[in-house]
Amino acid sequence: MLEFTQSPHNDRETLFVEVILPLAIAKNYTYRVPYEMNASVMVGKRVVVQFGKSKLYTAIVASIGKLAPEKYEAKYIIEVLDDRPAVTHEQLHFWQWLAEYYMCNVGEVMNAALPSALKLASETKIELNKGFDFDKSALHDKEYLIVEALDIQPELTVSDITKLLGQKTVMPILKGLFEKNIIHISEEVSERYKPRTRTFITLNPVYNNQESLRELFTILEKRAPKQADAVLAYIKLSRHQKSISKTELIEESGAGAASIKSLEEKEIFIAEEKNVSRLFYEDDEIYESFELSEHQQSALFQVKKEFDDKDVALLHGVTSSGKTQIYIRLIEEMISTGRQVLYLLPEIALTTHIIERLRVYFGANIGIYHSRFNDGERVEVWQKVLNNEYKVILGARSSVFLPFNDLGLIIVDEEHETSYKQYDPAPRYNARDAAIFLANMHQGKVLLGSATPSFESYYNARIHKYGFAELTERYGGVKLPEIEVVSISEETKKKTIQSHFTSVLMGDINQAISNKEQVILFQNRRGYAPILMCKICAYTPKCINCDVSLTYHKSSGKLHCHYCGYKEDTPQICPACGSTHLEYKGFGTEKIEDELSILLPDARIARMDLDTTRSRNSLQAILNDLEEKKIDILVGTQMVAKGLDFADVTVIGIINADSLLKFPDYRANERSYQMLSQVSGRAGRRGKQGKVVIQTYDPGHRVIKQVIENDYVDLYLTEMEERRSFRYPPFYRIIKLDIKHKDPEIVQHQSNYLAKELQKQFGERVIGPEPPLINRIRNYYIQSIMLKFEKDSISISKAKAIIRDIITQFQTTKLSKGSIIQPDVDPY
């Protein structure tokens, strides 16, 4: 364990600093501090160091002392980059805990935690910020040289700039150019998050009295009757609503955009652009000033009571029960005490309405942090949290890494979501579990919220480790949607099914469209057809890098691998037998969209999956169109299950529930229930009872019945019996080791060796090795070893230490050559 302390020192002492490098190395490295930098070094500051023969890195000072390393000669640090620490003592402890708990190196945690601009390295790419004008004459000589070089060659590495200037200490110069917004860190590929804006119209206060308004009408009715209609429409709308958008005014008045513009030019109307939510608000004032219902009051009281003696509480509330309003009350109370709040969401882009709703209350006190921000924006949020300028942070899983100094409350919304788990690269952490440790460090509280809690959280609530509160009714008394299960087999026999749509689903879709309502269709597979197969010899094209069949995408006309991105042209003739009889098997969202457009040629159909939301702002555009009723039917993957809240979505269709229920995973029933309940929860959220149609080959399946009856407790009790019998969480802890190698025989030998060494220590707790479901990805063959540890009779930290030692010992042998070993703690 590192000692994050700073030794007192004077100018002539020889100091040594232990630093964290953004690399997957087992130990931190020690550097010598030049005398002139003694006063500058401090724990948490960034320093520039050379590591290896010539590479430069930005490292974080973890500790300061006077002892030189025994085994190697310490190099000097090159530069101190910060005037004050960029990373707090608490963060360093948090990083160390993550590294130990998730069995990775602290450098890997640093790499995940820090925005790219705070960890420049030799190979980091630099380019000019093309959207920013600046005066070159205001630059000093070295800055000018860099800018001139970037004019000639659009992209340079830090190493290139080191050679250009003929000096090692280029990081401070690059830092200065970055802070002036002149350069951009090109390794940051995430698109910039753009808030949606709308123009709102107000009447010039000069016309607030009756006399001046009468005079205005008299003039306009004679000279510009259309403009008079617009003013009349504004007065009519203003009686019922607080703010009036330009679009609403044009629709209400029929006057046209030109008339509104003329009224703006005459300063009769004042136009103002404002950021608005992409999602529906029935009435903005509900959120500006709301009263909690009796059920909400009771749940809030219970949460606060549980917080008296417990640090974590679970709020189990059905979909659309008003959990967010309870969160708002808790946030208000917390920030009134001067403490910070972190509000975690699984998918930031799909919950824009929560961002806007919270901004109504907390204004400039709220900061947002997620992957759609560019690097400059992330650094800005980082600095503001460090300076305590934000009291509330709303963010995705990576926001647990921000430099909080007094975190009083963490809210984990939709705590069951798998999006909270990081799979690649390390640290393979779960933000929900990390949040509990983080809050504990700050003596804060954690509220977990979900309509379908993870079994681990629900188990902890039932054994009274966590507090527990419930919301069993939807807000405003809205009924839960009606659910109808339709047998695909029966309709196929009766020949009433059209393509992949049963007569029941088609009838409900047509009824919704005729009522000017909207439909969401869920199919948990993207692409057009999962498999292309030869009818004669059953040949199926496979990826050249992965052990998976290729998926046909009609939009590109190619076969795609969803694991490594490989693409190839669709064959017209079978390469195995020469037959021309190739056919598509199965269906994805693209095929659903395509066939619906044939069956319902007048319907406006859109698709929301990974393929349609890759480009800049594409997701926001789809949500805008859905809100503005430019879409009748939205077809999507699991993205449609998370956070969508639209007034006119009344029908939900689940095209094939079997793809969820028949998945080979011990969590399949839990995940199926969660997904089906969450998708169903998108229907009928504004007064109208919704309808959900579940299409399946197995209408009698236990989980489907539990979804219909909304019986989470029955699902939990049934599944817990199986979990206990077969040694799965929450009764056991799981650590998975993936061993990877480019040769299948070598990886088999390596994994067998490791399994035997582990069995010597842990016996029957070791399962495997065995190939996973997909046993080759990106040309690496994979073998998995699973270790199951009972919670009561073994120290998990000791078990991890033994596993680390065995892996280290293995890596010292010749057998380990070319292998990659990836530990994953709590893998599912």
From TrEMBL:
Protein name (record): Replication restart protein PriA
Catalytic reactions on record: ATP + H2O = ADP + phosphate + H(+); Couples ATP hydrolysis with the unwinding of duplex DNA by translocating in the 3'-5' direction
Subunit relationships: Component of the replication restart primosome.
Source organism per UniProt: Mucilaginibacter frigoritolerans
Molecular function terms from GO: 3'-5' DNA helicase activity; ATP binding; ATP hydrolysis activity; DNA binding; zinc ion binding
Family: Belongs to the helicase family. PriA subfamily.
Pfam families, per the entry: DEAD, Helicase_C, PriA_3primeBD, PriA_C, Zn_ribbon_PriA
Residues the record lists as binding Zn(2+) 1: 534, 537, 574, 577
Keyword Metal-binding: yes
EC number: 5.6.2.4
Upper classification of the organism: Bacteria, Pseudomonadati, Bacteroidota, Sphingobacteriia, Sphingobacteriales
Domain Helicase C-terminal: 569-726
Function: Initiates the restart of stalled replication forks, which reloads the replicative helicase on sites other than the origin of replication. Recognizes and binds to abandoned replication forks and remodels them to uncover a helicase loading site. Promotes assembly of the primosome at these replication forks.
Gene Ontology CC annotations of this record: primosome complex
Keywords carried by this UniProt record: ATP-binding, DNA replication, DNA-binding, Helicase, Hydrolase, Isomerase, Metal-binding, Nucleotide-binding, Primosome, Zinc
Binding site for Zn(2+) 2: 543, 546, 561, 564
Keyword Metal-binding assigned: yes
Single GO BP term: DNA replication initiation
